[in-house]
Design goal:
The complex is a heterodimer. By secondary structure, chain A is α+β, with helices and mostly antiparallel strands. Chain A is built from six helices and five strands, in the order ββαβββααααα. Chain A folds into two domains: 78 residues, Beta-grasp domain (Ubiquitin-like (UB roll)); 70 residues, Orthogonal Bundle (DNA polymerase, domain 1). In chain A, helix 3 crosses helix 6. Chain B is an alpha+beta fold. The longest helix of chain B is centred in the last third of the chain and has 26 residues. The chains are: A alpha+beta, B alpha+beta.
Chain lengths: 161, 290
């Protein structure tokens, strides 16, 4: 038992090994230890969704996961998803619809929206709102975000003609 | 909002867990999904000396059916619970409850064992367990015992678990013929803890409700078994008169504490509204399947 824990994990496809404080949550680890500042620290108690990242392929609240518990895990952040172009269309739609204003919620919003489109390629507007209810945005009023997700879903569908 | 310093250790087997737990003493806390514990640490409502990570204990994982009973391992996440074929078949109420629990990112980490051990009175799964007559399997170094769900929740965040026990699994009895169930809640925002919620279950025979079981959540210190409303509905069809009688009985037996959402009167009103909706849904779902 110790207040510092040695972990080895994969972050955005790269192997990382660090000694971390047991109490450090994943977002502080990403931002302070690895310099990956795309994942944002918001409320730090699991309410706002600004810290949404992927652990082992599934979205989580980064502030509600201890880095110490992630030995062997695979973590993907907005930096990794941007580099891989995986959500390029979704990001373009956010820009086209002005779905990011101050941008603080945007990385978490993109990660959550990407997870929605993966599990439900044809969401209704109500389903988009329901899925994103755990991600706060204080600027847009959400309408433009829902528009962007809806437009991305429509564009991804194979043409019927 | 930074957690206080603590030590961390991961248990890889149950034997190791009980040894570490003995060594760490009574101030240690067990870390499963962490979706309640980590916020409590961030607020410094909890300041354990040691966190023992149990999230990789295979003995606490898995979903299976034996002798008709559905056994759900304590580490089952809400996401797994909501999508598992055996759950949909043997305890469809649980799958119906999952979308009401928090948000997808939290459902990917939070566990059924954690939800029951934390015992938030506004949480969905404790109420489901009481409504379904589940048994909670409590495990200590000396063995396991089963605690009926309606004897498990003792007070606000207080359960029947002893200091040296953890939840290993939850067991749900076989569905009875004609059994229907539903869960409804009212929250200001989707995914928030409910201002009031209800779980209703009954056998529907010739459009009458047999053995109804009604549990309210978010309106007391523990999930509330509404025995008065249950008696008013037993043997009755879902008609205006029987629903009104059950609502009157429910208003008598609830004594909701006021919270940030509103006072006792408002919660009593919401509970009555939910009761009517739930009873109609039970009988409607029966007819839809005839």
């Amino acid at each position: 038992m110790t207040r510092e824990v040695q972990i080895a994990l994969t972050v955005n496809g790269e192997a990382v090994a660090r000694r971390v404080e047991a109490r450090q949550h994943l977002i502080d680890f990403l931002r302070l230890e690895l310099g990956l500042t795309g994942s944002h620290t918001g409320c730090e108690h699991g309410v706002c969704g600004a810290c949404t990242v992927r652990v082992d392929g599934r979205i989580v609240r980064g502030c509600l996961v201890l880095a110490a518990s992630l030995d062997g895990a695979r973590v993907d952040t907005i930096e990794g998803l941007s580099d891989s172009q995986e959500i390029r269309d979704l990001q373009d739609a956010f820009i086209a619809r002005n779905a990011c204003q101050c941008g603080y919620c945007t990385p978490g919003m993109l990660l959550a929206a990407a997870a929605l489109l993966e599990s439900n390629p044809r969401p209704t507007r109500a389903e988009i709102r329901e899925y994103l209810a755990g991600n706060y945005c204080r600027c847009t009023g959400y309408h433009a975000i829902v528009d962007a997700v809806e437009a991305t879903a429509a564009a991804r569908r194979p043409r019927q003609d | 909002m930074k957690a206080p310093p603590f030590e961390y250790v991961r248990a890889n087997t149950l034997a190791e867990l009980f040894q570490l737990w003995r060594q760490a003493g009574p101030e240690a806390r067990l870390l499963a999904g962490g979706q309640s514990l980590i916020p409590a640490l961030a607020f410094r409502l909890s300041e354990p000396n040691v966190l023992i990570d149990i999230s990789r204990l295979a003995d606490l994982s898995g979903i299976r059916v034996r002798d008709g009973w559905l056994r759900v391992g304590a580490l089952t996440t809400h996401s797994e619970l909501g999508s598992h074929a055996l759950v949909r078949q043997h305890a469809p109420l649980l799958a119906e409850a999952v979308p009401l629990i928090a948000h997808p990112a939290i459902r990917n980490r939070g566990t059924i064992g954690g939800s029951l051990a934390y015992a938030d009175p506004a949480a969905e799964l404790p109420a489901c367990c009481v409504a379904l007559g589940a048994n909670i399997v409590a495990l200590s170094a000396t063995g396991e015992r089963r605690i009926a769900a309606d004897a498990f929740f003792r007070g606000l965040y207080v359960t029947a678990l002893e200091a040296n026990e953890l939840i290993a699994a939850v067991e749900f009895p076989p569905l009875k013929a004609g059994e229907r169930s539903t869960i409804l809640e009212l929250a200001r925002r989707s995914g928030d803890y409910a201002m009031a919620g209800i779980v209703a279950r009954a056998r529907v025979e010739a459009s009458r409700l047999a053995d109804p079981r009604i549990v309210l959540f978010g309106v007391g210190d523990v999930p509330v078994l509404a025995v008065g409303a249950m008696a008013a509905l037993a043997g009755k069809a879902a008609e205006a008169a029987s629903i009104a009688a059950a609502q009157a009985a429910l208003a008598q037996e609830l004594d909701p504490p006021a919270d940030l959402n509103g006072g006792a009167d408002m919660k009593r009103h919401l509970a009555q509204v939910l009761l009517a909706r739930a009873v109609k849904r039970l009988s409607a779902s029966a007819e839809a399947r005839v």
